[in-house]
Every structure is written in C-alpha cells, then in structure tokens.
Amino acid sequence: MSRARRRDTAPEMELRRRLHARGLRYRVALPIPGQRRRTIDIAFTRHRLAVFVDGCFWHGCPEHGTSPRANSEWWKTKIAANRARDADSDRLLRSLGWTVVRVWEHEPADRAADNVVEALAAMSG
After folding, report:
1. CATH code reported for the domain at 10-120
2. What are the residues whose beta carbons fall under 8 Å from the beta carbon of 46, sequence distance 6 or more?
3. Cβ atoms within 10 A of the Cβ of 111, count?
4. In what order do the strands lie in the sheet with 35-44?
5. What is the pLDDT of the chain when averaged over all its residues?
6. What was the pLDDT predicted at 65?
7. Carries keyword DNA repair (predicted)?
8. In degrees to the nearest 10, what's the CA dihedral of 18, 123, 91, 83?
9. Chain segment 37-46, per-residue pLDDT in tens
10. What ranges do the domains of the chain cover?
C-alpha cells in the first residue's frame, strides 16, 4: 500500500495533459479548505471547480472495483471509509460553493476532459 501513488498517477497525468492541450490552466493538489490532509486533484480556482480522478480499486468502482480475498473484511471497511471520505469532501466543497467532478481512472482521458470542459462552460455562461 505504501508504494501506491497518491498523486500524479497515470490517469491523472493523462487528463492533465489533455486539459493543458485545450488551453486550460489549473492548480494541482490544492488543499480542501479546512481539511489540510485532503487535496483536490485538479482545481480550477477561479471557477471553483474541483476535479478528482478516482482509482477503481481504492474508491470502489462499481464496474472495475475488486475485493481481495485475503483480509477481505478489512478491505471492505477500508474502501467504504474511502467512499465516505469522498462523499464528505464533495459535501464540504459544495457547501463552500465549489462544483465537483469525479472521474474514474478507467474513463478515456478525452471523455474526462470533455466532462471538465462542459462543467466549466456551464459555470461560465
């Protein structure tokens, strides 16, 4: 577990490349206000748009999430806690006026970038 990347994962980097190629500029690993240990993967601060790239295993993807056989009850609890933390982060950000976009790591980067661009367009006009 300690070797699992927390940021700059391949899906996150690919999405960041696609967004940058579209001329968008953003902040990376921006702390969530009032939550020092939680960060927004990709933040558009001017628009208050928070983008999270969720790993299928760590965040319990309904399509690709797996459950290890060894110590399965512990993992079930761990992933449920991750999902609860995600929901709490979403709630906190929304209460502060942010829009939250969550992307699964298995989503094609172009489609994820389209979702982000659509969210920004909806906020701008």
Report:
1. 3.40.960.10
2. none
3. 11
4. 27-32, 35-44, 49-54, 99-104
5. 94
6. 80
7. yes
8. -30
9. 999 999 999 9
10. 10-120
